[in-house]
């Protein structure tokens, strides 16, 4: 894959490491304004695809709204309100945690994990960061009378609905199929297609699209968690829908039509927000300063920073 240099890791005045990747930024007309690497190549969106997955569910009768719909789009930190929300979704569908097929896990939020371990708790599906999505998939199955024990099968009606919705919004066919970390089917598209999907989600006049976009932008702490960069990003840009994903993927769409998608080649998450914000600024978007770099620590204190390369700073 022909990725290009997108970020540098500076420890003091010493260039210690670099990150390669691909980036695409679309203007309000949908035209490509920033292209780095090969954003036309197929990649796995990972959890950046969750807003599209949620849209497919809403289109098929999922009755969630507000914070619980935002949780359906989440890679949540595992804070108490996230976990309680997952159980509320399941209860509303007449189910309990035993119906979840996501991988048992620990909270991914630092504070949430510390409190979790202090309380002597272990791994469970409800704590897994994708459990909100899985609970919503199950609720969609119940509404439609679809089987709940096989909802992770790529041929299941719920997953076919996700695939069809993704292809519609991305404007391209799925180019690869795999299994995500949580066990759900994973559909590969290009970064251009991912950016296009986010732009269409945030600018559509459709009732279902508006519900998903409004839920995420209004309740960003339910999409990420306390202190998470995806939460801070949506709070800083009114109406924006942003979603981080594993293996260095990030995407954002604005209600004014701009959209960005990026992928860090080595899979590291530490450079993805830096690159995303740099691309937003090239589009003229007033992106938050605190996400423009990422601190490099020495003895627990900032001694340097991860910064975008000059090609992304204009």
From TrEMBL:
InterPro entries: Asparaginase_II (IPR010349). This is L-asparaginase II. It comes from Saccharothrix tamanrassetensis.
């Amino acid at each position: 894959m022909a990725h290009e240099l997108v970020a540098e890791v500076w420890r003091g005045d010493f260039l210690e490491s670099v990150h390669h990747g691909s980036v695409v930024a679309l203007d309000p007309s949908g035209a490509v304004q920033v292209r780095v690497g090969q954003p036309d190549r197929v990649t796995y969106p990972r959890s950046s695809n969750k807003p599209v997955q949620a849209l497919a569910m809403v289109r098929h009768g999922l009755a969630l709204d507000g914070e619980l719909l935002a949780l359906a789009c989440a890679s949540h930190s595992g804070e108490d309100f996230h976990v309680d929300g997952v159980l509320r979704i399941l209860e509303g569908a007449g189910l309990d945690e035993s119906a979840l097929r996501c991988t048992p896990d620990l909270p991914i939020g630092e504070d949430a994990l510390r409190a979790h371990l202090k309380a002597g708790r272990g791994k469970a599906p409800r704590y897994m960061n994708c459990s909100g999505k899985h609970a919503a998939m199950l609720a969609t199955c119940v509404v439609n009378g679809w089987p709940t024990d096989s909802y992770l099968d790529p041929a299941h009606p719920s997953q076919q609905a996700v695939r069809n919705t993704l292809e519609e919004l991305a404007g391209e066919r799925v180019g690869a199929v795999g299994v995500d970390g949580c066990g759900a089917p994973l559909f590969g598209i290009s970064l251009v297609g991912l950016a296009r999907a986010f732009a269409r989600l945030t600018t559509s006049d459709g009732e279902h699209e508006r519900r998903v976009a409004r839920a995420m932008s209004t309740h960003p702490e339910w999409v990420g968690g306390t202190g998470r960069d995806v939460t801070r990003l949506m709070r800083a840009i009114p109406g924006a829908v942003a979603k981080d994903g594993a293996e260095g993927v990030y995407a954002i769409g604005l209600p004014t039509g701009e959209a960005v998608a990026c992928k860090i080649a080595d899979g590291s998450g530490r450079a993805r927000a830096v690159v995303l914000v740099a691309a937003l600024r090239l589009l003229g978007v007033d992106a938050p300063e605190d996400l423009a770099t990422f601190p490099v620590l020495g003895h627990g204190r900032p001694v340097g920073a991860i910064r975008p390369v000059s090609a992304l700073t204009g």
